[in-house]
Amino acid sequence: MPHGADEETPVFVISVAAQLSGLHAQTLRSYDRMGLVSPGRTAGGGRRYSMRDIALLREVQRLSQEEGVNLAGIKRIIELENQVEALQSRIAELTEELATAYAAAEQAAAAVHRSYRKDLVPMKQETALVVWKPRRRR
């Protein structure tokens, strides 16, 4: 990988991506047209594949060859995996927000407790006599 690039950085031309994935370049073009793998594009329109794209191409090949899944099924699997990933990311965000809200609530409760008057003295609870007078009926 080039310096400063990560697995999402589109760097590989189609011929290199074909070699790395073990597929023919025409197959990569076909997968791109079908929306199975969507590589980045250069200003001139050339395809550039990332390491994530290469891994996805390998997974498409594995599902097709070893599992016997057709390309429409593979596309649906990819869509569902992307949806799961997005939902997991959202859950992580919401969990973080919830933790922040809990911390803020605890701080607010502590501030209220600190504001209580210190001169109040707790008293013993004793038995009390309550006189009840029922209302007269009219």
UniProtKB/TrEMBL annotation:
SUPFAM superfamilies: Putative DNA-binding domain
Keywords per UniProt: Coiled coil, DNA-binding
Protein known as: Helix-turn-helix transcriptional regulator
Matching NCBIfam families: HeatShock_HspR
PANTHER family in alphabetical order: HTH-TYPE TRANSCRIPTIONAL REGULATOR YFMP, REDOX-CYCLING DRUG-SENSING TRANSCRIPTIONAL ACTIVATOR SOXR
Coiled-coil residue windows: 77-111
InterPro entries noted in UniProt: DNA-bd_dom_put_sf (IPR009061), MerR-type_HTH_dom (IPR000551), MerR_fam (IPR047057)
Statement: the UniProt record of this protein carries the keyword DNA-binding: yes
Residues in HTH merR-type domain copies: 11-80
Lineage, highest ranks first: Bacteria, Bacillati, Actinomycetota, Actinomycetes, Pseudonocardiales
Keyword check for DNA-binding: yes
Entry-linked Gene3D superfamilies: 1.10.1660.10
Pfam families referenced in this protein's UniProt entry, alphabetically: MerR_1
